[in-house]
Request: fold
Amino acid sequence: MRRTDVIFEGKVQSVELKWKLVNAQVGELIPADIEEGEPGMQVSFEVLRNYSETEQKHLQVRTGLGGGDCGFPFEVGEKYLVDADKDESGDLSTGICSQTGLLEDRQVEVAYLRGDPEIPETAARNLPPPTGQLCGHLVLDNAIRPADGEVLLFRAGSNSILPSEGADLGADGSFCIKDVRPGKYFMVFSSGPEHSPTSFVFFPGVPKLSEAKAIEITVGQEISHILFTVTPQRTYAVSGKISNFNRGQRQAEPKVMLLGADRFLLALSYVQEVTADGTFTFPKVLTGKYWAIVDVESSGDTKWSTKKVEVNVDGDIRDLSLDLTAN
Reply:
């Protein structure tokens, strides 16, 4: 840890999502390659104790979203031991592969850094992580098959666009999510083909987050009686065209994406290929507000841009117009 660029004890003041797609205004040009400008979380800390050369009282550290990019799940108000590295521009970043962790879980490292002669007794006990589990059953309409769906947990108050945990369903609609950190969560049932969901329901069985009921779990608690009612949801067709579609755009092999215009934008998203004349059709889209963009993989010297368009789906849409521009 002494070889790390920056080590400090800090209290989280804010956690913000940083991504061009999300931060841009509707109608603004953004890179058409959705993977350009990788999304991440910017965490602002009040520095409580510093073990490196910097004497700043406030620091900002970047981390990933989680779900495979090594992002660390920081929470506002919690205290952490942060082990961060600097990039070429001097910005700090950390992740789950570092010694970063809740201050209470890093007492051995803290004792070493502070020069304490003994390890705290609570740290020496090597206690298991304080987690719980959420289990239950889905009450499904006959038209919905358990094998096609999954149950997701989104931590209440978090700005992350990825679920904290998830579980597949048994043949009888049963589910069990283990190793859940204490806190409040919104539970979601999602089903349908990849990138084309036909169900997205919040516990206890409502279509909107504003109507959802948060589930709270405490240290070591095992909740096993959750009944989650899921009924069919109506879908609509969304179709349109890329304006002034030409040969160069066609060779770029663009796709059109509809992304849920809230924190669930990656869990509630649709992707469709574009035909030779620049048209596209999403046959089944759930009701809601979306952002529509054209997605093109970067290659060669050509850089592509697209406009962020807002789409409100509450009926069939046949004339959606999107832009794809070569820079």
